[in-house]
Design a protein that fits this description.
This protein has 156 residues and is mainly α. Among the domains are: 55 residues, no CATH class; 54 residues, no CATH class. It has 6 helices and 2 strands; from the N terminus they run αββααααα. A two-stranded antiparallel sheet has the order 1-2. A hairpin with a 2-residue loop joins strand 1 and strand 2. The two termini are 59 Å apart.
Length: 156
Protein backbone atom coordinates (compact mmCIF):
# COMPACT_ATOMS: atom_id res chain seq x y z
CA UNK A 1 0.00 0.00 0.00
CA UNK A 2 2.82 2.35 0.86
CA UNK A 3 4.53 1.66 -2.46
CA UNK A 4 1.34 2.49 -4.37
CA UNK A 5 0.87 5.79 -2.51
CA UNK A 6 4.46 6.79 -3.18
CA UNK A 7 4.07 6.06 -6.90
CA UNK A 8 0.76 7.88 -6.95
CA UNK A 9 2.28 10.98 -5.34
CA UNK A 10 5.21 10.82 -7.75
CA UNK A 11 2.87 10.54 -10.78
CA UNK A 12 0.63 13.28 -9.46
CA UNK A 13 3.66 15.54 -8.93
CA UNK A 14 4.92 14.74 -12.46
CA UNK A 15 1.60 15.52 -14.17
CA UNK A 16 1.12 18.67 -12.10
CA UNK A 17 4.56 19.96 -13.14
CA UNK A 18 3.80 19.08 -16.80
CA UNK A 19 0.61 21.12 -16.61
CA UNK A 20 2.41 24.06 -15.03
CA UNK A 21 5.10 23.96 -17.75
CA UNK A 22 2.47 23.88 -20.49
CA UNK A 23 0.50 26.73 -18.91
CA UNK A 24 3.67 28.86 -18.72
CA UNK A 25 4.59 28.03 -22.31
CA UNK A 26 1.09 28.90 -23.58
CA UNK A 27 0.78 32.11 -21.58
CA UNK A 28 0.92 35.40 -23.45
CA UNK A 29 3.09 37.73 -21.38
CA UNK A 30 3.51 40.49 -23.97
CA UNK A 31 2.28 41.57 -27.40
CA UNK A 32 3.64 43.96 -29.99
CA UNK A 33 0.83 46.20 -31.21
CA UNK A 34 1.69 48.80 -33.85
CA UNK A 35 5.35 48.66 -32.82
CA UNK A 36 4.61 49.10 -29.10
CA UNK A 37 5.12 46.31 -26.55
CA UNK A 38 1.99 45.68 -24.47
CA UNK A 39 2.38 43.83 -21.13
CA UNK A 40 -0.01 42.88 -18.37
CA UNK A 41 -3.26 40.95 -18.36
CA UNK A 42 -5.74 43.78 -18.90
CA UNK A 43 -3.72 45.67 -21.61
CA UNK A 44 -3.19 42.40 -23.53
CA UNK A 45 -6.89 41.57 -23.22
CA UNK A 46 -7.80 45.08 -24.45
CA UNK A 47 -5.39 44.80 -27.41
CA UNK A 48 -6.84 41.42 -28.42
CA UNK A 49 -10.40 42.65 -28.05
CA UNK A 50 -9.67 45.79 -30.13
CA UNK A 51 -7.97 43.69 -32.84
CA UNK A 52 -10.96 41.40 -33.35
CA UNK A 53 -13.49 44.21 -32.93
CA UNK A 54 -11.78 46.17 -35.72
CA UNK A 55 -11.71 43.13 -38.01
CA UNK A 56 -15.25 41.90 -37.45
CA UNK A 57 -17.22 45.04 -36.70
CA UNK A 58 -19.78 45.97 -39.32
CA UNK A 59 -18.71 49.13 -41.05
CA UNK A 60 -21.29 51.47 -42.49
CA UNK A 61 -20.86 51.43 -46.25
CA UNK A 62 -23.03 53.19 -48.76
CA UNK A 63 -24.01 50.65 -51.37
CA UNK A 64 -25.64 51.45 -54.69
CA UNK A 65 -29.34 50.74 -54.90
CA UNK A 66 -31.60 49.72 -57.75
CA UNK A 67 -33.95 52.69 -57.41
CA UNK A 68 -32.54 54.74 -60.30
CA UNK A 69 -31.92 51.89 -62.72
CA UNK A 70 -34.10 51.35 -65.73
CA UNK A 71 -34.65 47.80 -66.93
CA UNK A 72 -35.75 46.66 -70.35
CA UNK A 73 -39.11 44.92 -70.28
CA UNK A 74 -40.56 42.29 -72.56
CA UNK A 75 -43.52 42.94 -74.78
CA UNK A 76 -46.60 40.76 -74.41
CA UNK A 77 -45.62 38.79 -77.52
CA UNK A 78 -42.11 38.20 -76.19
CA UNK A 79 -43.52 37.12 -72.80
CA UNK A 80 -45.86 34.55 -74.35
CA UNK A 81 -42.96 33.31 -76.48
CA UNK A 82 -41.19 32.24 -73.29
CA UNK A 83 -43.90 29.72 -72.41
CA UNK A 84 -44.69 28.22 -75.81
CA UNK A 85 -43.59 24.61 -76.48
CA UNK A 86 -40.29 23.92 -78.23
CA UNK A 87 -40.38 23.08 -81.91
CA UNK A 88 -38.50 20.14 -83.40
CA UNK A 89 -36.27 22.57 -85.30
CA UNK A 90 -35.29 24.33 -82.04
CA UNK A 91 -34.46 21.06 -80.30
CA UNK A 92 -32.46 19.81 -83.31
CA UNK A 93 -30.52 23.11 -83.44
CA UNK A 94 -29.72 22.78 -79.71
CA UNK A 95 -28.50 19.19 -80.17
CA UNK A 96 -26.37 20.14 -83.17
CA UNK A 97 -24.79 23.01 -81.19
CA UNK A 98 -23.35 20.49 -78.71
CA UNK A 99 -19.95 18.85 -79.19
CA UNK A 100 -20.37 15.38 -80.70
CA UNK A 101 -17.87 13.30 -78.72
CA UNK A 102 -17.10 15.45 -75.71
CA UNK A 103 -18.93 14.26 -72.60
CA UNK A 104 -20.86 11.00 -72.56
CA UNK A 105 -23.79 10.82 -70.21
CA UNK A 106 -24.18 8.27 -67.41
CA UNK A 107 -25.36 5.71 -69.95
CA UNK A 108 -22.27 6.27 -72.16
CA UNK A 109 -24.26 7.97 -74.93
CA UNK A 110 -22.86 11.24 -76.27
CA UNK A 111 -24.35 13.75 -78.68
CA UNK A 112 -22.59 12.17 -81.67
CA UNK A 113 -24.79 9.10 -81.20
CA UNK A 114 -27.92 11.25 -80.90
CA UNK A 115 -26.97 13.16 -84.08
CA UNK A 116 -26.26 9.95 -86.02
CA UNK A 117 -29.59 8.39 -85.04
CA UNK A 118 -31.70 11.58 -84.90
CA UNK A 119 -34.36 10.21 -87.25
CA UNK A 120 -34.98 7.25 -84.92
CA UNK A 121 -34.64 9.19 -81.64
CA UNK A 122 -36.43 12.47 -82.39
CA UNK A 123 -39.88 11.12 -81.49
CA UNK A 124 -38.72 10.01 -78.02
CA UNK A 125 -36.75 13.21 -77.46
CA UNK A 126 -39.67 15.43 -78.46
CA UNK A 127 -42.06 13.39 -76.29
CA UNK A 128 -39.71 13.79 -73.31
CA UNK A 129 -39.38 17.57 -73.84
CA UNK A 130 -43.11 18.12 -74.36
CA UNK A 131 -43.87 16.05 -71.24
CA UNK A 132 -41.46 18.23 -69.25
CA UNK A 133 -42.99 21.41 -70.72
CA UNK A 134 -46.53 20.26 -69.92
CA UNK A 135 -45.91 19.00 -66.35
CA UNK A 136 -42.93 21.08 -65.24
CA UNK A 137 -41.28 17.90 -63.92
CA UNK A 138 -38.76 15.46 -65.29
CA UNK A 139 -40.00 11.99 -66.15
CA UNK A 140 -39.96 9.58 -63.22
CA UNK A 141 -36.81 7.49 -63.18
CA UNK A 142 -34.75 9.90 -65.31
CA UNK A 143 -32.13 10.04 -62.58
CA UNK A 144 -32.13 6.30 -61.81
CA UNK A 145 -28.73 4.63 -61.73
CA UNK A 146 -27.78 0.98 -61.85
CA UNK A 147 -24.51 -0.04 -60.26
CA UNK A 148 -22.79 -3.25 -61.34
CA UNK A 149 -19.83 -4.55 -59.39
CA UNK A 150 -17.16 -5.96 -61.69
CA UNK A 151 -14.69 -8.28 -59.94
CA UNK A 152 -11.03 -7.61 -60.74
CA UNK A 153 -9.85 -11.11 -59.87
CA UNK A 154 -10.90 -14.44 -61.37
CA UNK A 155 -12.45 -15.85 -58.19
CA UNK A 156 -13.37 -13.12 -55.71
Amino acid sequence: MFLFCNNFNYLSKYFHSALVRRRRRNAIVSLVVNGTVVEGVQPIWNAGFAHFRDHFEVSIVTRPGAENLSFNTLTTAEGTGLIKPFTEAEVKAAVWDCESFKSPGPDGVHFGFIKDFWDQLKGDVMRFISDFHRNGRLTRGINTTFIALIPKVDSP
